[in-house]
Amino acid sequence: MFPTSVAGSLPKPSWLAEPNKLWAPWRQEGADLVAAKADATLLAVKEQEDAGIDIVTDGEQARQHFVHGFLERVEGIDFAHKIEMGIRADRYKAMVPQVIGELRLKGRVHEMEARTARAHTKRKLKFTLPGPMTIIDTIADRHYGDKVKMAMAFASLLNQEARALEADGVDVVQFDEPAFNVYTGEVKDWGIDALHRAAEGLKCKTAVHICYGYGIKANTDWKETLGGEWRQYEEIFPPIARSKIDQVSLECMHSRVPMSLMKLLDGKDVLVGAIDVASDKIETPEEVAALLAGATKYVAPEKIVACTNCGMAPMRRDIAYAKLRALAQGAELARKKNG
Q1: Is residue 8 predicted with pLDDT exceeding 70?
Q2: Does residue 126 belong to any structural domain of this protein?
C-alpha cells in the first residue's frame, strides 16, 4: 500500500550541469559528458533508494530538458536555427527547434540511462518520455502543416523508444503531458489517441503525468490566475479513465485541485502528488500522510502511489532529497494508519 515514486526529473550534481535552473548548460563535453551522465544516473538511483523511494527513475540526469532530451535524437529537426515561440498557450516563451522534414529516430534515445539504472537497482524502475501533445507544443512546425499529424508522427517515434525501454527492463513507461491541462478540449479530440499510439503494444505499466508545471515563476504566476479551484482535471479525467493507460500522475500538495475529482479516474492507479516542487519548505511526514489519507476518500488505497507534484530538476539537491525522505516517511506513516 502507498508505494512511493517521483514524477521524473531530479536535480543534477553541480559537476554535471549548472545547478538550480532549467535548460542548465552542461559542465562537460564529449566522452567526459557521457561518463558524467552515467555517473549522475547511478547517483540519482542510489539517492532515491537511500531516501526510501520504492519505484525509482533515472532522474532524467542525461537530459538537459524533458522534451528536448528526446528531440535531440530525432532526424528532421533543425536545432541550428531555433526560433522564439510561446508555449503552453503563450504562458511563457522559449527558443525552440524546428521540424523541417519527415521525423525518424537516429537510433536509441535513452538506452544508456535505462540500462545503467536497471543494472544497479533491484527496485521497480520507471522511465519518463515526453507526451506527443507536449512535444508539439514545444517545437515549431515547418514541415507537416497539421499539428495532429505531427503529434502522431512523434507518437510513433515515442512508441519505438518505449518498446525498447521495456526490453531494457523498465517496469513503468510514463508519458509527460503537462499540455493536457492547457488544451483540455484537444485531449478528447486527439490527445488520448496520440497517447495510445505512443503506448501501443507495451506490456509494462503505462502512465501519463499531468500537472501544472515545474515550480518556475511562469508557472506559479499562471496558477495565481486559476482561481480558488483548479478544475482542469475535471474535463480531462473522464476520457483518461476510458483510456488504455494504466496510471495517472497528478498534482495535489498545496494545489487548489478539489481532491474529489479523483473519483473521475475510477479504475486507474493514481500517483498522488504529495510533495510541492514549487516550494523549498520540506513537508513533514504527517503532512504527506494526511494528504494520502484524503486521497483514500476517492481512490482505493491499493490504487494509490505516493509521488511528487512534478519534476524537481530546478530545485536544490539537498532540499529535493529531503523532500523525498519526507515522502517515504509519510507513506510509511499512512500505511500504519491504514493497516
Answers
A1: yes
A2: yes
